[in-house]
Design a protein that fits this description.
This protein is mainly α. Helices cover 75% and strands 0% of the residues.
């Protein structure tokens, strides 16, 4: 192979690898700008409800119970975030000083625990109402889905 062809191919390959690497690593996560806006959460909620409705072939009554469950989950999420405009900044503040701010960390833990204790019974009730409204075939589909998707790295 002639040297100029070899150099050209190596150059093109290098440019392709560089462009591919930049494209793969240059994206930003959907949460990079802080917590999701209420509009984005509503969009995700709508897509999730539509997808579950389609996959399980839900009736109108079942869809209504699913929407109530989604509302309760979003309310719980909001309660967990609390009044903080930037939860990540709050976590960073724990390690900003020379020593870890233990008192602030315990206070954050208390806030989040109280939020969970207040909202979780409603979420459990809504989930139970939704699941109990499903017919046996739909319940089997839910169990099968949970079995196939056993955690973050077990993608089915």
């Amino acid at each position: 192979m002639k040297p100029w062809i070899k150099r050209t191919l190596i150059g093109l390959t290098s440019v392709t690898v560089l462009a591919g690497g930049l494209a793969a690593c240059g994206h930003r996560a959907h949460y990079a700008d802080g917590p999701a806006s209420p509009e984005r959460v509503a969009e995700w909620r709508g897509k999730a409800v539509d997808r579950v409705t389609r996959k399980l072939d839900l009736t109108a009554e079942q869809r209504q119970k699913l929407e109530l469950l989604a509302d309760k989950l979003i309310a719980q999420r909001s309660a967990m975030i609390g009044q903080t405009p930037n939860p990540r900044a709050e976590m960073k503040a724990l390690v900003a000083g020379e020593k870890f701010d233990r008192a602030r960390a315990l206070h954050l833990l208390d806030e989040k625990t109280r939020a969970l204790q207040l909202t979780t019974p409603e979420v459990i009730a809504a989930l139970a109402d939704f699941y109990d409204s499903l017919n046996p075939a739909q319940q089997a589909e839910v169990r099968e889905f949970l079995e196939k998707r056993r955690g973050w790295f077990h993608r089915g």
